[in-house]
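Dear Dr. V.,

Thank you for agreeing to look over these. As mentioned in my earlier message, I'm a first-year student in the group and I'm still getting used to reading structure tokens, so any feedback on how I've presented them would be very welcome. I ran two proteins. I've put each sequence directly above its structure. The first is here:
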Amino acid sequence: MKKFSESCWLRSLALVIAVLVACGLATAGTQYVVTNDDSVFPFHTGVSFYTIGTHGLVFQQQVQTGNFGIGGGYFGMNRLAVLDSAEQQCVYASEAANDDVVGIIISTLTVGGSATGSSTDGGTTNGIGLAMNSNYLYASFSDSNTIGTFQVEPGCGLTFLNDTSVVGLQSGVINGMAVHGSMLIASYTDGSIESFNISGGSPVSNGDKQYSTATVKSQDATYANSIDITSDGHFAIFGDTSTQVSIEVSDISSGKLTKTKTFQSVASISSSNLILSPDETMLYVVNTQGDTVGALFFDKATGQVLPGCRSGRLRGISQNWSYLAGAALISQSGNGGGLYVAEFGSTSGIATVTLTTSGQTCSLQEASGSPVTDANSPGLLSIGTFPPRSF
């Protein structure tokens, strides 16, 4: 029998690895920017995956999910949730036209499973927002004003458990959500905010529903939208829809929301989407109804927000896109290095805005080659990264 040489074995191994990479099965260590394309009938929606190249984002493929989106909705609703646990790595996306949530397996870039809520759950008007931990995924259905609780299953599957009915103080619709530890925080379109205990899985109100301070002071001209929570669970941060930049911070160390403190600036219009940097020194703010991105200095010990910097006008306003929307961090360490920003419009895209800092000064600038078009989306609102930020 002819002996199988070591060199032949190595050539065979290299061939196997090449095939796996070509088939999308060898993605360990790959970094992605992902989009919920939210495509409307008759075009199937899906999730697009981009890698980070030398000169910017590079489209890899769209994982079609077989259903449909609505091409719009509330800014504060994050239509993506990314899971990076020891057991599995998944991207979950809501499909509002079909009232379901689909899970995609990162290692193969294939659909792992999907689930709908109850027969009365719906989000076809303004979308379905997502937030999650390693055990449960929470879906905010905007039509039915419910939070659906789903059990996370192996293979990026989901099992629907139950609904929690919610409503703002003036019948507001559920909008943004964020999860940290045993707490889920929600915002409503009437300017009210509320927290829930999720230690048992399903949300149970903490009895702290209240109007945000900015809503009261502006006589309903400002309302809390997107939400982020510090890594230690001390502060909840709200990005407001407003005629100016309006950020609100609530001390939640007691396990409940407290009256929000506000930071406001007339430097730009609206601040419906925000995200903290990994080291929590910077708070990135997307001027959703303007044309810029801001970075504010943040003190994670006190919750204080201080002035920072603002980018110039992002390319393509009016010609290609109408609104800026969701954001994702360029880096999952340090100050984040800047943002990827969703551009909502007839030609949806992803802008890249980089950050430089020196002491208590900073600068934001759109990168050359930005934006990258998302040809699969008629109205891009939600983007994310894999791996995600650690908290």
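The second protein is here, in the same arrangement:
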Amino acid sequence: MPSERLEVDRIIPAEPHAIFEVLRSPQGHVSIDSSGMLMCAEGDPATKAGDTFLVHMDRDSLRDFPLDLYDVTVSFTKFEPDRAIEWTILTDFLNPPLGHVYGYELESAEGGTRVTSYYDWSALDEAYRGRIGFPIISENALRATLGILARTVAPGVPRQVTAGD
């Protein structure tokens, strides 16, 4: 059975706290998005599981559904400060909710923090199986977002190039 989860990681030369601050923030989500869909956000940074904020989206960058401009509510399902954060997406036009989650795990590592980004649609509601092609976000997009996150929290930090890179 094919996997219903994408996962990528990268060591970012920053402390877990600095990274977590970006990931819990509405504007942080917008600033590191590599898909081009997140336009702007409203609300306060998350402080616990169950917190939410609003994100204004533009589906034109994917051109997979003619949704144009729409809003989603980011609803946090896991919140472990400086260690793990996860959320699902809620909308007014999809009922029941899709059931997919995005998340990050942070672990201290030599040279900074190992950041694991994942996208999991294994709990996708049966109403959408076969109707919506998953994954919506590619592995390359997850990797690109990690690159933008690194640039955001550690601007100007050069990467050491070694043999085999």
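From my reading of the second output: The chain has one domain: 5-153. Strands lie at 5-12, 38-42, 52-58, 69-80, 84-90, 101-109, 112-120. Does that match how you would interpret it?

Kind regards,
E.
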